[in-house]
TrEMBL record, chain A:
PANTHER family: DEFERROCHELATASE, DEFERROCHELATASE/PEROXIDASE. The lineage of its organism: Bacteria, Bacillati, Actinomycetota, Actinomycetes, Micrococcales. Residues 228-397 form the Dyp-type peroxidase C-terminal domain. Residues 73-216 form the Dyp-type peroxidase N-terminal domain. This is Peroxidase. SUPFAM superfamilies: Dimeric alpha+beta barrel. It comes from Paraoerskovia sediminicola. Residues 38-57 are annotated as: Disordered. Its cofactor is heme b. Keywords: Heme, Iron, Metal-binding, Oxidoreductase, Peroxidase, Signal. The keyword Iron applies. One of its GO terms (molecular function) is peroxidase activity. Residues 39-51 have a biased composition (Gly residues). It comes from the Bacteria.
From TrEMBL, chain B:
It comes from the Bacteria. It comes from Paraoerskovia sediminicola. Residues 1-14 have a biased composition (Low complexity). InterPro entries: LpqE-like, Lxx211020-like, PCuAC_sf. The lineage of its organism: Bacteria, Bacillati, Actinomycetota, Actinomycetes, Micrococcales. Residues 1-42, 66-92, 202-230 are annotated as: Disordered. Residues 219-230 have a biased composition (Basic and acidic residues). This is Copper(I)-binding protein.
Length: 411, 230
């Protein structure tokens, strides 16, 4: 804790807040996993000390764990970690059901070990596994994996891909994939190690098709539960369904769900041309608080009927919130996106955007109608372009003794 | 720590007998025993040096195998007792192996690793091994020769697991060498390894296979003298 002048009190406050935050965060993770129906591994090295204890360990963030075993996979209802990598893989041509079983045996064991801070078998950098930092790894199957497994796609009821949208400028290098790994942790080195280990262990089955890395605020930099901001400066993800009340929107009965990964490029150069008022009108929310332009706070309902002194609706017809919002409560989904900020090319200042990630029980019923409306009209489309898209079926979690994908792969 | 340059040199194994560790007389059989495998093109220096220590692990093994175990069918493995369940007083009751694994290979040789743990108050000695995945299994160690080079050899006296302690089998160290693999060992598949202790009791271990770049049983990985810095 380094301080400059006048920081005595502040550093004290920050220290206390960080300590409490670390413990609370870890507990929050456990509670959420429990609420989601999954067991919490007994030995989880979650942050020590009760809330209110004078000190938490310096490395409480690194030691925190999220449960792995359960009826639902972790990494969906889990409070979003700070760092993420999304890795799509293509199966080798000879991968059949038996091979998929072998791969899932390997990944299940790897993930169980990694998420508890233990090195997987044959880990050549075993020391890197010692910091779980709330690591979760969520595995998804693309259409080819289900086909290889001999699964009737109708039995899992999901679309292999989203319908084409007019705004799409999709590139192969960010689209599709036979398998996906969503690897999230509160430490980027933990993420990198897990990604490499899992991809290495899959070498004889699949090769990496694309990797998208993303980030949010680091742990301890904002109060727990703060909605993230994207690189356009907007509060992003306010209107998420409630994890418990709306569980049926997120999960299917068997604990499976579906995951959509869309890469949304932002044109920050033209966004820069827009003044603050214009930016807020484009979204329909205040930039500072994320509150609707019709008043209240971030989580208050937007009043789409409210008019200004000229008789125009406060929230413009083209505003993002108006187009995205619906009275149909079924047309909602869990957003769990991450910012990306990659190296630019061709003289551009930046290559930034959002890895837009959603989970929903039914892609076609919940997500597609909203995406259609945004495709038809959304002023934000002026500055955002979907360049990648992929849809995956996320199998139920692995119960004790089970492998991921057990319900469709058997043994 | 071993001397990397020396390790690299000793892994140049086909060309010069005088580079074999002098402590290992069996190395005289090396050149004739490279049969069945085409020499690989030398890799880049960087890869070679980096991989040398692990590469050598099993490359060295192979040479020793040639002296001690060839023809492969007639090793000194004394596991004919089979994998009978041990009775209450058997040594194997006190022995466990955690995190066992084996390197996936299509054919030929590979190795099994893991941590042996002894819950008894007397030392235990693993004296031999068998596996369903290969025709032969041997207990190997990495040893330092007179010239400081690390090389592999069959471990005389077997693996000693100290009372209440553990004995680690890992790439670059002691391991169960598996030879005569004819059916591919596929990543994710478990193979059966049976360890036999001094009293003849046995421990059956299921070791899942993993794709692994190290622990290569390559012959002639660095088949020139270019890395000889001695």
């Amino acid at each position: 804790m380094t301080g400059r002048r006048g920081l005595d009190r502040r550093s004290f406050l920050q220290g206390g807040a960080a300590a409490l935050g670390g413990a609370a965060l870890a507990l929050g993770g456990r509670e959420l996993v429990e609420a989601a129906g999954g067991p919490v591994p007994g030995g989880g090295a979650t942050a020590g000390g009760a809330p209110g204890a004078p000190t938490a360990p310096d490395d409480a963030v690194g030691r925190a764990t999220e449960g792995f075993r359960g009826t639902r996979q972790a990494g969906v209802a889990t409070p979003p970690q700070a760092s993420a990598a999304f890795v799509a893989l293509d199966l080798a041509g000879d991968v059949d059901r038996a091979a998929l079983v072998r791969l899932m045996r390997i990944w299940t064991d790897d993930i169980e070990r990694l998420t508890s801070g233990r090195a997987p078998l044959a880990d050549t950098e075993a020391e890197l596994a010692a910091v779980p930092a709330r690591l979760t790894v969520t595995v998804g199957f693309g259409p080819a994996a289900l086909a290889a497994a001999g699964v009737d796609e109708a039995s899992v009821s999901w679309p292999a891909a989203l319908p084409p949208f007019g705004i799409d400028r999709l590139e192969d290098r960010w689209s599709g994939g036979d398998l996906v790994l969503q690897v999230c942790a509160d430490d980027p080195l933990t993420v990198a190690h897990a990604v490499r280990l899992l991809a290495k262990d899959a070498r004889s089955f699949a090769e990496v098709r694309w990797v998208q890395r993303g980030f949010r605020r680091a742990v301890g930099t904002t109060p727990s539960g703060t909605t993230m901001r994207n690189l356009m400066g907007q509060v992003d993800g306010t209107a998420n369904p409630h994890l418990d009340v709306d569980a049926n929107l997120i999960w299917r009965e068997d604990g499976s769900t579906s995951m959509v990964v869309r890469r949304i490029a932002m044109n920050l150069d033209t966004w820069d041309e827009l003044d603050r008022d214009g930016r807020e009108k484009a979204v329909g929310r205040r930039l500072d608080t994320g509150a609707p332009l019709t008043g209240g706070t971030e989580h208050d309902e937007v009043d789409l009927e409210a008019e200004d002194e000229h008789g125009l609706t406060v929230v413009a017809p083209f505003a993002h919130v108006r187009r995205a919002r619906t009275d149909d409560r079924a047309q909602r989904f869990l957003r769990r996106g991450y910012n990306y900020d990659d190296a630019p090319s061709g003289g551009a200042v930046s290559d930034s955007g959002l890895v837009f990630v959603t989970f929903q029980a039914d892609v076609e019923a919940q997500l597609v109608p909203v995406q259609r409306r945004l495709d038809e009209l959304d002023l934000l489309n002026e500055w955002t372009t979907p360049v990648g898209s992929a849809v995956f079926w996320v199998p139920p979690g692995a119960g004790s003794g089970e492998i991921l994908g057990q319900s469709v792969l058997g043994g | 720590m071993s001397n990397t340059r020396t390790i690299t040199r000793t892994s140049t194994r086909t060309d010069s007998l005088d580079h074999r560790p002098s402590a290992d007389p069996s190395s005289a059989t090396v050149p004739s025993e490279t049969s069945g495998r085409a020499p690989r093109a030398p890799r880049s220096l960087l890869v070679g040096v980096a991989a040398a220590s692990l590469t050598l692990v099993l490359a060295g093994c192979a040479s020793d195998d040639g002296a001690a175990a060839s023809p492969p069918a007639s090793t000194g493995s004394s596991s004919s007792a089979g994998s009978t369940e041990s009775d209450g007083s058997a040594e194997a009751d006190a022995l466990t192996m955690t995190d066992p694994w084996v390197k996936a290979v299509d054919e030929g040789m590979t190795a099994a690793f893991g941590t042996l743990e002894n819950s008894s108050d007397a030392d235990l000695v693993v004296v031999s091994a068998t596996t369903t995945a290969g025709s032969t299994a041997e207990l190997h160690e990495m040893a330092e020769g007179d010239d400081g080079a690390m090389t592999m050899q069959e471990k005389e006296g077997g693996f000693v697991v100290p009372a209440g302690g553990e004995h680690v089998l890992e790439p670059g160290g002691d391991h169960v060498m598996v030879m005569g693999v004819t059916d591919p060992i596929l990543a994710g598949d478990p193979i059966e390894v049976t360890l036999t202790l001094e009293d003849g009791s046995t421990l059956d271990v299921e070791a899942p296979a993993r794709t692994y770049s190290g622990a290569n049983e390559s012959y002639d990985e660095h088949g020139d003298d270019g890395h000889d810095h001695s």
